[in-house]
Amino acid sequence: CIIAGDGNDRKMLEKMVDKFKLRNKVHFVGFVSDPENLWENCDVFFFPIRWQEPFGLVGLEAMAHGVPAVAWDRGGVQEWLVDNQNGFAVQEGAAAESALKRMFDHPEHFNRMSRNGIKMAEEKFSEEMVIKNYEKIVIKVYTWSQKML
């Protein structure tokens, strides 16, 4: 397990790793300015957010690299994570453990979710699609504002 970032929970997580004697299996790499190298060696992305994350771009990055996600089903995660399609959207607690176990126990889930994630990232969130959707919004706002004048 690789844990990237230096958030508020790092010390607590390090204590848990020590408590359960997992230092040889869990590696803390801190802040990573270029996460591309991490995706190459990643099987599953786990995103245990506690707040109503507005979007969670890191999950979309995982999808674009063919890495299925397991994340809490809240906030903006719902924009890119479709349960049982490109990962598992779960409630906090044991559901995450169950989802991760299903992913590793059934490689067909992993392969299907990996393909679906790449497809969704390309079709819904590519640069071309983001620009196209942004233009639609701008045109709608402009048209609405002209009617109000």
Describe this structure in words.
By secondary structure, this protein is of the alpha/beta class. Helix content is 54%, strand content 12%. It has seven helices and five strands. The protein has helices spanning 10-19, 36-40, 57-64, 77-80, 94-105, 107-125, 127-148; strands spanning 2-4, 27-30, 45-47, 69-72, 87-90. Strands 3-4-5 form a three-stranded parallel beta sheet, sandwiched between helices. Strand 1, helix 1 and strand 2 form a beta-alpha-beta unit. Helix 5 packs across helix 6 and helix 6 packs across helix 7 (127-148). The model has no long low-confidence stretch (mean pLDDT 90).
Topology:
Elements: E1 2-4, H1 10-19, E2 27-30, H2 36-40, E3 45-47, H3 57-64, E4 69-72, H4 77-80, E5 87-90, H5 94-105, H6 107-125, H7 127-148
Parallel strand pairs: 1-2, 3-4, 4-5
Helix pairs in contact: 3-6, 5-6, 6-7
Structural features:
single chain; 149 residues; alpha/beta; 3-stranded parallel beta sheet; two-stranded parallel sheet; 7 helices; elongated
Fraction of residues in helices? 40-55%
SSE order? EHEHEHEHEHHH
Q: What is the distance, rounded to the nearest whole angstrom, between the alpha carbons of the first and last residues?
A: 57 Å
Strand elements, count: 5
Low-confidence stretches: none
Number of helices: 7
Q: What fraction strand?
A: 5-15%
User: Which term fits the overall shape?
Assistant: elongated
Could you describe the largest sheet, including whether it forms a barrel?
3 strands, parallel
> Widest sheet: strand order?
3-4-5
Query: Rg, please?
Result: 18 Å
Average pLDDT for all residues: 90
Classification by helices and strands: alpha/beta
